[in-house]
Amino acid sequence: MPELLTPTVAVIGGGPGGLSAAARLAPELDQVLVLEREQQAGGIPRHSDHPGYGIRDRKRFMSGPAYARALEADARAAGAQILTGWTVTGWADEDTLAVTTPRGLLHVRPDAFCFATGARERPRTARLVPGTRPAGVLTTGQLQNLVHVHHQEVGRRAVVVGAGLVSWSAVMTLAEAGCATEALVSEHPVGESYALFRVPGKALFRTRVETTSRVVAIHGRTRVTGVEIEDTRTGNRRTIDCDTVVFTGDWIPDHELLRSAGVEIDPASGAPVVDAAMRTSKERVFAVGNLNHPVDTADVVALAGTHAGERILEHLAGRPAPEASVRLMAEDPIRWVSPSRWAPGGPAPARNRLVCWMDRLVTRPVVTVRQGGRVLARRRLPWPAAPGRTFRIPSGVLDGVTADGGEVRLSVD
After folding, report:
1. Looking at residue 153, which CATH number applies to its domain?
2. Residue at a domain's end among 321, 348, 367
3. Is-above-0.85 flag for pTM?
4. What torsion, rounded to 10 degrees, do the Cα atoms 202, 208, 209, 210 define?
């Protein structure tokens, strides 16, 4: 029989959300274990060796690796035990995790679970991009691992699929590796990243953003020789010569462990259905960070981790969950909203924000909230609702929601 560990809280995933939750929990609990499958904690920022991290949570401008080290140091200083090389492979029973470790197979049965497994990019195969199968086709995560961890060369001329924040992160990593970015290819009429990044980025890296375009084929035998792109307005096609293609964004939540436990999954986002306290549909199971909203910036995820830690402490102290909640439903052009359950009278979400994903650009968005056919709120927001990045809505728009009024629908005009 495998050895059984019984911590107060098991945090699954040692990225910004998991480490921040652990740092909040550990000073007040007997034992908090962070189970991290990689050999080093810190999550995606470990591989992003460029500045831009820590702005909201640490009020500093840090590189990814420095930010990851700071989060890990805080969690350890708070008393959390961070166990690297520990991979949760499944459930031994409905209350117990099966974990493969350097010590062999172990079972972990905590009083509460905090899942912070994050999200991953959809690779070329999942996007069904045709063409040959040469070397030189990567995701951003693979690229950053090759460059920043293994210090390998990746090519000389690249095309980046996508034009969001993570796409510009890939451009910076390519530049560090000595690889020029020929173009970023976006299906949207405007690049997905903020103009603050997009405008100077094109000048600094001497590249361009091909908007309203999509990659329709990859060419090359042993190595990529080019990508074929199509203008989605005209149908015209042309080939960009390159030896590297990086697929960015198009995120998938790492929800497999929760799905196998029977946790309710939102079909629109693939994320677990959670309320503002980050409770899932399974008792004692909480979910945090980009597992819930694929994908937001690391500092926002860290703040959400602290928020989740506070809600878990309330749960362990015996504070009852709200008796009733309603589903939040997104209407076009909103693809999904998180949290996707709302308990009137319950806690506010992290940073008092609802997190949404858009399918098209709305430059002057007006958010409308309806329940039972009635308009409860209608508010114009001063920031655009743009595809390819999160769109945040102040949670105060839900103040009029009632527990017995049925599902709530959010729309943007």
Report:
1. 3.50.50.60
2. 321
3. yes
4. 170
